[in-house]
Every structure is written in C-alpha cells, then in structure tokens.
Design brief:
506 residues; alpha/beta; nine-stranded mixed sheet; four-stranded mixed sheet; globular
C-alpha cells in the first residue's frame, strides 16, 4: 500500500518544503506554507536509473558503435505549417490586448479585484462569440439562475417577451444588443473538473470560459478547492485538453491583497496570455492590461467604461484622460504616454504648498512615488527650486497609472509651474526622461507620440534633443537639460494673479 507523507506548499509561489517554516524559504512570504498530504510509492524507476542501465549495461560492440538517430524530434524545416486565422472577440479593445484577436487553442488568464467586471466582460464576450462559434460558459461560483439574471440585466438572452406587451410597443422599443441563441451559448454551473472535462469532450466548443479556476476541484486530490495543488493540477489538465481539442480557454483568476494572481506562480507560466482587469472603484472606466502574451506585444491596454448595459469600449482613451484645455491652470502639464503600442495623452497635475509639519508630505496618484522623490531632488539640486520645505502632490487625470520614464519631464515642469504659480500653454505637450544630472534623455516611439498629440490639436511639443521628428502642424522644440525645458514651457506664461487682473479689466 502506498505510504502517506505530508509536505508543506507555499500558497504564494508553490515551493515545497518537508517541514513547516513561518517564512517561505523561496519567496520570503510569511505564514504562507500549507500542509498537504501526498502519496508516494515505495519503489519507482526514475529516468536516471534507466539511463544508467542503458549506458552501463552489457551490450554488443556493434550496438555501442552504431550511430544514434532522433526518433521524435524534428528540425524547423521539417515541421509542417498550419496557418490559423485569429478569432474576433467582438471587441476591438480586447482584440488589441490579445495581439490582434483570439488564437485558437490558447489559454488566456484574466485576473482582477472582486467586482471589477471580469465576469461581465467574459459573459458579454461569450455572447458575441456565440453568434459565430459554439461557446461554453462554466460558472463555478454562481448558479445558473444567477448568471441568467445578470445576462438579462446586460440585455443577453432575452428570447421571450412578456404576454402583456403588444405589437405596437415592440415596434417602438429600442433595438436590443445582438444576442446568441441557446444552440450557440451553453451554460454549465459545475465545480467538478471531471464533469467539466466530459462536457468539453462531448460538446467540443470553439471557446470555453472557466469562472473561476479557484472554485474548481480535482477529485483525485485531497486538498481543498483553491489550494496550490488544486489550482496547479486543474490548470494543467485544462491546458492538455485545450491543446488537444484546439479549444480556446478564458480562465478567471482571483488576486491577492497585493494585486497578484492568487495561487502558485506556475499558473502564469502554464497559460499563454495573462491579462489584468483594473480600475478605480470611484471611476467608471476599466483598463484591461496585458502582462504576458506569447502571440503579441505585452503591456498593451484596452479601455472600457462601465454603463447600465455592461461594459462599453472606449476607442479614444486620450479624451478620457485629458482634462479641460479651454482654461489654463497653474501646475498642469500634458504628456503622451505609451502603453504597449498605443499612445495616450494624459494630463498631469501638481500642487506645491508650504508644509505645516516638520517633514514635508509627498503624495502621488497614478505616478510612482519613488520617481517623484527623484525628480524633486533633481529640481532642488540642478534647477535650484527649494522644495525640501514644501509639500508636493502629483496626480494623473482619470487615475491612469503612468509608470514609464517619459513622464519625468512633464512631472518636473508641472511641479515648477505650481511653485511659480504659472500656467503652461494648453496647446503644449512635454515628453522626456529626466536624468540625475539634470539632463533630458530620449524615449522610444517619439514619432508615434507626436502624431497622437497632433491629432488631438496640440501645436507645440518639448522633446529631448536628437530624438524628435517633423510632424505637420506641430512645432517641435528640442531641449537637452531640464532648465531649458522649464524656461521654454514657462516663457510668456502668466501667473494666476495676472490672469485674474486681465479678466477683470476685460
């Protein structure tokens, strides 16, 4: 009879240990080791033992001297090409994040905070896919009735009309969103992996949605659903079925307090694409961000907006993250950030004021905190602006997270404008990375950024020297140091008191 032995598995990284530790030896996470019981046989033949027998066993001289030949491996020219066209999800933003569409037989993992809209997005996507392909939606966390109620709220699956509605009201009613028929969209409320595998084998859908992987359980394992072993084994088995049957799988994953996908890190290694659905709970827009993609570019983003009828695409996100340009405001600068291959015009706001405490406060929203501290130090040391005794607050319009260095020059100009209480020309964009020596460094995709700014009506751009290109209808000003950029950006600008006096005279 096989022996039972217990070992401890980290629920953060999946590392195994024969004994318990308060801190994981692999990822240094505290209180993350969980005990699991595993079966181990008393004797087994390992690959190393087989290789040892083959090399050290007795064999004839002819057999030892015979040349070996590869049996299963192939060279690249020997592999037959099978061109596959991508499937359109029905959403331009989702296709952009996936690299141009859905690759048949791929595994896509979508994570996000509770209530952010993961199930809503996948249910709407499944509904649109079902108009052309057979689609299976596995709801492991909700009953079929709950999913139907949500579908009716989103305008999905309305195939019957109440008896008390007459024909005239039907003709005058607004058109409903395109819905799939029962023969195209299938719903399976189930948590048992074996039952789900049987349904996949019998139905053979083109696309399947698993909502969510933490709710499934594999009966061959004794651990609870959502544990490291269950998540790893369920994902591995689903991956084998998807690759064998050429089924595209969308898998919903929970996230931890830190915002990472819950479960072992191997979960992200098994899938082909990892997407994060994020957004501010006080705002209506949602961002779908790609952090891993074997079939396209990473760090692409898709922008959606949550409305009464579910999620809608935002095809021009620059208008969403761009403030009002009709009135100049002190401490405001406009940058062009690049998320993957998409340029987005974002407005940055800065506020510098006298501190009331012994140590000044620094606060950021959408901007990396350490990056702000570095820029403030450069402004005080290289430009001569005394910020060590002043509070500094910097935020991006709409709460968009801007982490690339191309926003450095915009932050520096906005802080300087707030300190001088001056406003920058609303038709000016500022792009560049700030070095510790006060120099302005070049950034990538400059031509793409400038074209996006010119399309939105900007007339002037302050960019690093040597990395600019001519854009019709835009004046491009190259600079090499932060001091030069501030002199150009603040030249001719009026303070708030001067602007108010001019308005009073008029």
């Amino acid at each position: 009879m096989p022996k039972l032995r217990s070992h401890f598995v980290c629920n953060q990284c999946g590392a195994e240990s024969p004994q318990y530790f308060g801190r994981c030896p692999s990822c240094a996470a505290w209180n993350s080791l969980e005990e699991q019981v595993a079966r181990s046989t008393t004797s087994s033949t390992t690959i190393g033992q087989v290789a040892h027998r083959r090399t050290n066993g007795k064999s004839s001289t002819s057999t030892r001297n015979a040349p070996t030949r590869a049996v299963s491996s192939l060279t690249l020219p020997q592999i037959t090409d099978h061109p596959q066209s991508r499937l359109s999800s029905g959403y331009i933003e989702l296709d952009r994040v996936l690299g141009g569409g859905i690759v048949p037989g791929s595994l896509v993992l979508i994570g996000g905070d509770p209530g952010i809209g993961k199930s809503t997005l996948l249910l709407q996507t499944a509904n649109r896919l079902a108009t052309r392909y057979r689609t299976l939606y596995v709801c492991a966390e909700e009953s079929g009735q709950q999913v139907k109620l949500r579908a009716q709220r989103l305008g999905i699956g309305k195939q019957a009309v109440a008896d008390d509605v007459d024909e005239e009201s039907l003709e005058s009613a607004s058109p409903q969103p395109s819905i799939a028929t029962d023969a195209d969209l299938y719903l399976l409320p189930e948590t048992d992996l074996d039952t789900i595998l049987v349904e996949l084998e019998a139905l053979k859908p083109t696309v399947a949605v698993i909502d969510s992987i933490q709710a499934l359980y594999y009966s061959s394992l004794s651990s609870a659903p959502g544990s490291v072993a269950q998540v790893r084994e369920c994902t591995s088995v689903l991956m084998q079925v998807a690759k064998r049957q050429n089924i595209t799988l969308f898998i919903v994953g929970h996230v931890t307090k830190e915002g990472a996908i819950a479960g072992p890190k191997v979960l992200e290694h098994l899938v082909d694409t990892v997407l994060y659905f994020e957004g501010d709970r006080f705002a209506s827009h949602r961002l779908l961000r790609s952090v891993k993609n074997r079939f396209g570019a990473t760090h692409e983003i898709g922008v959606f907006e949550m409305v009464d009828q579910g999620l809608q695409e935002v095809l021009n996100p620059s208008e969403l993250f761009l403030g009002n340009r009709e009135e100049a405001t002190p401490g405001t600068a406009t940058i062009v950030a690049c998320e993957g291959t998409r340029p987005i015009v974002v407005e940055l706001q800065a506020l510098v004021s006298a501190t009331s405490y012994s140590s000044p406060r620094r606060s950021t929203t959408g901007i990396e905190y350490n990056r702000l501290l570095q820029i403030l130090a450069v402004l005080e040391k290289r430009v001569g602006i005394p910020l060590s005794k002043l509070d500094a607050y910097v935020s991006s319009s709409g709460g968009l997270s801007v982490g690339e260095p191309a926003a450095d020059l915009g932050i520096a100009v906005a802080v300087a404008a707030s300190f001088r209480d001056r406003s920058i020309d609303p038709q000016t964009v500022v792009i560049g990375e700030v070095g510790l020596g006060g120099q302005v460094r070049s950034v990538s995709q400059m031509e793409l950024r400038l074209k996006e700014a010119a399309k939105l009506g900007f007339k002037r751009a302050i960019v690093p020297k040597g990395s600019y290109s001519d854009v019709p209808g835009m004046e491009v000003i190259p600079v090499s140091r932060v001091v030069d950029a501030m002199a150009i950006a603040l030249a001719g600008s009026k303070s708030r008191q001067q602007a108010e006096s001019v308005e009073n005279e008029e």
